[in-house]
Amino acid sequence: MNAEGGAGGGGANIHLEFEEMITIANKLKSICDIYTEGVQPEIKKLVESDFYQAGQAMKTIKSYSDILGKTMELFDNYSMAAQIVNYAMEKMYETDKELQKLYQIQK
Asked: How far apart are CA 21 and CA 83, in angstroms?
């Protein structure tokens, strides 16, 4: 995939191979899986624990909700990035198929 820098992009060309997109998508999926399978359940345990709900040691944990919220915002960002990469791959694949059909017609 080639892209020209647009508004504020500096005009530099970007060249990205489809295989690189697959690698990026797989890495983003791995990160999202870590959040889904590990981080999110542990956050839920922390929030639901009697210690947290009872408000003991509030000076220490009063910022937990902010920290936990920000942690899950990271998941949202990685998830959105994965969706964008997957969308770009779909569009690249569709364009490739269309070009392939055009090439077959011209032969």
From this structure: 12
